[in-house]
Amino acid sequence: MTEPMIACQELSKRYMLRQRTQGNRLMLGTALEAARGLLGGGRVEPDEADVHWALRDVSFDVMPGEALGIIGRNGAGKSTLLKIISRLTLPTSGRVVLHGRVGSMLEVGVGFKQELTGRENISLSGAILGIPAKEIRRKVEEIIEFSGIRPFIDVPVKRYSSGMRIRLAFAVMTTLEPEILLIDEVLSVGDAEFRRRSASRMEELIQGGRTVLFVSHQREIVERLCDRALELDRGHLISIGATARVVEHYREMVQPESPTNAYVAFDPDPERPLRIRAAAILNRTGEVAEEIEMAESFRVRVSYDINEDVENMNVFCRLETPDGLGVLCSGDADYDPACLGPRRRGTYSAEFEVDGGLLEAGPYRLTVSAGIPFERIFDREPGAVSFRIVDRSSRRRLWYPQTRPGLIGREYPWVYEGRSPWA
Amino acid sequence: MTSIEANTSETDPSSPGEDRNDTGISYVVDATRRGWRARLSEAMARRELLWMLVRRDISVRYREALLGVAWAVIVPAASLGVYWLVFDVFFDRQSTDHPYVVFLFPAMLAWNYFNSSAGRAAQALVKDSSLLAKVYFPRLLLPVSNVISPLLDTAIGMVVLVGILLAYRYVPGWELLWLPVFGVIGMSAATGMGMLLSSFNAQFKDVQHFLPIMLHLWFFSTPVLYSVSRVPERFQQWYALNPMVLVCEGVRYAVLGGVFPLSASMVAAGLFSTVVILVVGFVSFMRTEQTITDVL
Lengths: 423, 296
Fold this sequence. Notes:
The complex is a heterodimer of chains A (423) and B (296).
Chain A (H helix, E strand, L loop, with lengths): L5 E11 L11 H13 L10 E12 L4 E5 L6 H8 L7 E7 L2 E4 L12 H11 L4 H15 L14 H14 L4 E5 L7 H16 L3 E5 L3 H7 L2 E6 L2 E7 H12 L8 E3 L8 E9 L8 E3 L4 E9 L7 E7 L5 E6 L14 E9 L7 E11 L3 E15 L33
Parallel strand pairs in A: 3-7, 3-8, 5-6, 6-7, 12-18
Antiparallel strand pairs in A: 1-2, 1-4, 8-9, 10-11, 11-13, 13-16, 14-15, 14-17, 17-18
Chain B lengths: L19 H4 L2 E5 L5 H10 L1 H17 L7 H20 L9 H28 L1 H4 L8 H8 L1 H18 L11 H25 L2 H15 L15 H4 L3 H14 L7 H26 L2 H4 L1
Helix pairs in contact in B: 3-7, 4-5, 4-8, 5-7, 5-8, 5-9, 5-10, 5-12, 7-9, 9-10, 9-12, 9-13, 12-13
């Protein structure tokens, strides 16, 4: 039985919310509290309300050569966990047993010294990580090569862009080969080309037997790089196991965070030439619906007031994902340019239908706006309504119980030329 | 905790990394603070990093200055000029056994070293807080490197001192052999103050306000501009509790020879307070060290 490379045993970390260093009123309060503690005999146990448990009883093992992804929302305790493993802070209770040299990339960069050149910072970082000077000298060229910033290597780091700094930091960290590599959100920075190269470098390292602990918000990268993942929520270990399962569990956990509201009404506003009054998502039977069955069509309805005579305008809907990625746009003059003509005052209501089976299951929202294109916005309601497309009836659902990435959910029949493999 | 451990990839025993037991360092992180002996020896083992930090300090300090290392000559020369003008020319010529410049400079070098090393070491943790937040290394190396790097300035000052001595046709005697002894005492006092001030500074930024005035007062409580014989006899024993009294008078004696001006009990007082500062500084630093990133 091989020993784990990292063994975390009932790790807990408590932070005091009212740190004494924060009070600067001559710290009288602290003195009083301390005196009370002394008189009361022994230590004052902190009030539960003043305490924040960043981690609570977290136990897990990481085997040699394994890549473990850590996922969780902001404040779940991911970074605290890496901080404890990299010995930057002591746990309140519990322990970590490590076998090997730890290299960590917490946040961005490895604490480069601004005034020193890139080359000098390579040696300094190496020395800080405890790597013998000889080994660093041997690897310098490789580091410079991978970082892709050779023309700037003898320039002080303060002249670097943040992207260059990260490239260099990543190159240092992955080339100097610590046995245990802790990576915190680093692969989400830099340009696309660097992200691609660093992700494949990570794959190489993992395949080369490096033990990696990897924190990311990006579930796709965790899914790609890690065989196992663990999920933290408010300091507790929620689940640990095969990445696909943990990520799915996390997705389900996170989703209730985006509330749905398929109908919204707005007060009239005579000051504006045009005012959006209501927006709604209607299902096939014409009812307001927060959940739309993937295979069925749905309708988007918009009502608005025209308070002044207007022309050359259109009313425009943008369907987007909760993080703002546009999925589908439609304006009421798209189909017929004659609609750009003068519009009379009054209250109007219109709708359009989106065909069933088009969109992948997941949360969506709708932004409604009205105005003269390229010239003027009369009214705009970002994310006015939100709804969810659910898949309860697609055929693949019968055997594939998870949602898939992607925005288009259409199912396509595959056609085999000649012989099919089932015959 | 919903365990969904099922069908987890069993780690392949033939995978690389199985030789880790030869190279691997076993290390335990837990809530109990490690003893100071373990941490001290860990810091000692990282000499390579210490030199790297010293080199970094020095190159960062002079790199971006137009005149570079020349400042290590200009600054002491300028203050020497000012002190000579004020205390030798404007005020009455002091009754010292030596020309005032020769009398002043050795002690001034010693004081300048203490002043800049304790002052820089006090800032060591705060200045490098971004580094401390990201990588673990023995934190003790930071104040210690700041005590070592000003030695370069001092060495350059020594060259100037040799020039002054030559100009005044002074040749140091066998007393010069004492110089390293007083140097070590001075470095110990600076290290102790550096550890004490930097650990306080990490928690209470008040140190930054208090530091300049403290060093200013300390300067005037040290026999740099005057000799210890000007201090009234009945205060001398208390006065000697300032370790820099021993260091400055000692360096002056080592360079210029003559009669050593401190009594045995004054020397003992200076040594005693040096040890106290070193121990208190070390204890205070060791207490702060492990929680530093929670505080900074």
